[in-house]
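Q: My labmate handed me this sequence with no annotations at all. I'd like to see what the chain might look like in three dimensions before we decide whether it's worth expressing. Could you predict it?
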Amino acid sequence: MARRQGRVFGYPTEYCYGLGCDPRDRRAVRRILQIKQRPQHKGVIVIGSDVRQFRGLVDATALAAAAASDWWPGPNTLLLPVGPRCPPWLRGRHQTLAVRLTAHADARKACRFSRSALVSTSANRAGQHPVRHARELARRFGRRLIRLPGRIGRASRPSRIIDWSTGRVLR
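A: Here is what I predict for the chain of 171 residues:
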C-alpha cells in the first residue's frame, strides 16, 4: 500500500465495508471526506492491529489504560485525548481521537500490511446506509478506490463509541 499518495481503499470491518487510508496522508483523508460528503470538523475513526500503531496520535497514559481494559480488541471505539502527533484532519474540532483496536481478521491484516493504523470510516455517503456487500461497494464507488479482499464480520451494528474519560456510550 503506497503511503502519502492520496490512495483510498475499501475494506471489510466488523459490521460493514470501510473507507480507509494512511491517517498521515492529508490528501487521502480529504478524498475520503469528499467521497462521503462529510465535514472535516467531525473527525474520523482510526483503527489499528496493535496499540503501538496509535503512539503519538493519542495520549500515552490513556492509551496504556485503554489497552489494559476489557474493551479491546473488539468492536469498541474509544475517544482518547489526542497525542502530540495527532494531525488536525483526523480529530476535526475535537481534543479527542476515535480509535479502535480491531479484532476483525481482514481489517487487522490491512493494518499489518500497511504497517500503520488506518482511517476507518463506513463506506457510505452522509445519511446513507453503510455498504455491507462487495458488489455494492463497487457499484457505489467504482474506480475511486481500491478494494481489499475479505468479508465483513458478523456484527449486527456499528462499533460502539465510548468517551474514555466519562465511560459514556455515545453510539
